[in-house]
Amino acid sequence: MTVPGRVVPGTDPVDALTADGGIVSIRSVTAADRSAVTALYEQASAASLHLRFFAQPSAATLSAEVSRLCRPESAHHVNVLAYEGDELVGVASAERFGDRPRSEFALLVADRHHGRGIGTLLLEHLAARCRRYGITELSGEVLPGNVGMLRVARDLSSQARHRFDRGVVDVTLQISNDGSTAAVVDERDRTAERASLRALLSPSSVAVVGAGHQIGGVGRETLQSLLDYGFTGPLYAVNGHGDAVGSVPGYRSLRDLPGPAELLVIVVPAEQVAGVLADGAAVGARAAVVLSAGFGEAGPDGRKRQAELVRRPAPTASAWWARTASGCTTPTRGSGSPRASPRRFRPAARWRLLLSPARWPSPCWSTRPALALGCPPWCRSATRPM
């Protein structure tokens, strides 16, 4: 058990996958978050505030709540928040009952992010922090109409208890590490991971950046592979002149596209890749494949460039995949034991290199059996037998 009053070190921040495959960064609340927390409550709907406070809170009540949340973490006050990119999307806290191993929890998620599993993630990480202080039980009062919160409590623990009393549901969560709770967490992780890979393996729209007219060029061949594969979604060619490539319409920038591109296939000089990824994140791309040389295989400068590339934040992307002349790079997912702490997702900022024997045209040739995944449609080996 941690000594009361001492802050647990080394736990910030943690990236996690939402139910729809997005990435949120979860960490403790600090005084520097006060303006963002204030905005979260000010922008909450009247219905959400009523479910949180059981009445419409006054300005003084909201100010006091923000001050409570922004207190330093201790054995008697534990808090976590979740950011998606630069947007605060939720906050949760636990206040201990004296020195007993029990705390009262509270939670608020931004209205437009309801249904994404953010509340469940926040409580999961809150529970992990509480356990480090010797807290084994979370409790809270929930209005019967707050179906979302009751579902979050059920999803968090296989040992959730509900008791209706005087118009309020008393919720009690045992947060000890046991096999049944770990199984619930594992299943939730698997669902989120499948969602995070959908844009890569089954994209609804694709933009090939660097596709030109040169016969045999990687960009043009990628477009042709998609057409030969029978891809029926929106397909865009992006190049410096905005020229169409065959029957595929062309644009000068990702920001000029008439609609979103879920998957980016990037075939530009290595020094331009970071800017393309930034544009992709700005327009909502959810996955990217980099087919550019000049990274890890190009000596010290290339390795430095690759390290900088994979450390780039991808606020809207669920999975960045990269391929260089030496192989395929994929995000490593999950580390540590779910029995000891919530599953930690390693997003685009940390990558694992899987070597591929062929530079082109099979970017996932060696990873296909290892990952038990079919080739995505942008791979020319998609129809080849293994």
Structural key phrases:
8-stranded mixed beta sheet; 6-stranded parallel beta sheet; disordered N terminus; disordered C terminus
General description of the model:
With 386 residues, the protein is an alpha/beta fold. Helix content is 31%, strand content 23%. The chain has 10 helices and 17 strands. It has helices at 34-42, 46-53, 59-69, 118-132, 147-156, 179-201, 218-229, 270-282, 299-310, 367-371, and strands at 14-17, 23-27, 77-84, 87-96, 102-109, 137-142, 160-165, 168-174, 206-209, 235-238, 250-251, 263-266, 287-290, 319-320, 322-324, 327-331, 351-355. Strand 9 (206-209), helix 7 and strand 10 (235-238) form a beta-alpha-beta unit. The termini are far apart.
Summed up, what is this model?
The chain is α/β, with parallel strands linked by helices. The protein contains 10 helices and 17 strands. Helix 4 crosses helix 5 (147-156).
- Poorly predicted runs of 5 or more residues: 1-11, 314-375, 380-386
Please state how the strands of the largest beta sheet are arranged side by side: 1-2-3-4-5-6-8-7
Structural class: alpha/beta
Distance between the termini: 53 Å
- Mean pLDDT across all residues, rounded? 76
Which percent range describes the beta-strand content?
A: 15-25%
Largest sheet: 8 strands, mixed
Q: Got a strand count?
A: 17
Radius of gyration, in angstroms, nearest whole number = 24 Å
String of helices and strands: EEHHHEEEHEHEEHEHEEEHEHEEEEH
Shape: elongated
Helix content: 25-40%
Work out the helix count.
10
